[in-house]
Amino acid sequence: MKRGPRAIVAFFRVLYRICLRWSVTGREKVPSSGPLIVVANHVNVTDPVLLMLAMPRWVTFMAKKELFSMPIVGAVMRGAEMIPVARSGSFEDKREVMRQAEELLGQGHVLAVFPEGRRDKTGVLIEAKAGAAFLALHSGAPLLPVAMLGTERITGPLSLLKRPKVRVHIGEPFQLTSGGRRLSRSEAARLTGEIMLHIAELMPPEQRGPYAG
Which of 4, 97, 123, 128 could disulfide-link to 152, CB 3.0 to 4.6 Å? Predict the structure, then answer.
């Protein structure tokens, strides 16, 4: 890990220990080497850093491009080597993001994706997009489901005075299988549902939303 990212992680580790009561379960399930796609629910802006702190390996994220233009946030994200994604980008933009992601996985790194594509502040799962399924199928990388639990309690600076209790729950790695690399819309939906069910299993029933099973 480069000095810049290492310093960022060290800073946030101290900050999060001061502001939150957070814990991790299932860390031993993270493969020690090889490509890996971490898929997690997304509730709060604190989730990416919390996920990074919870993982025993360095994690690279995909993040919306607009955040990179913010002075402090953008500097942190560039330092952490995150991949910018334009939500309404052209086909070429999306293909370039996919190329970067597959290249990173091809080098044996860990990439984190929030399949829902946006935050839901209630902590309840919402319908996910198919990007993670496409990436997993094309790269052949295993997926690791993670549930971010309790970050919905972080509602602003004042809520941190209570040091909210949050938990990162890591599940078992799994592999997606399909009849071919070119996915139909229905097959993409099925595989996306499979990914989200793995995440939902790590969450309380009342937070599983459309993936309650």
Answer: 123
Per-10-residue mean pLDDT, the chain, length 213: 65 87 95 96 88 90 71 65 68 76 91 90 92 91 96 88 93 85 81 96 96 85
Q: Locate the domains of the chain by residue range.
A: 3-211
Query: Which of the following CATH numbers is that of domain 3-211: 1.10.10.10, 3.40.1130.10, 3.40.50.150, 3.40.50.300?
Result: 3.40.1130.10
Tokens of 13: 């580790």
Q: What is the pTM of this model?
A: 0.87
Question: To which residue do tokens 């890990």 refer?
Answer: 1
Tokens of 80: 């952490």
Task: Give the CA angle between residues 21, 168, 174 to the nearest 5°.
Answer: 170
Residue pair 80/55 in contact (Cβ under 8 Å)? The answer is no
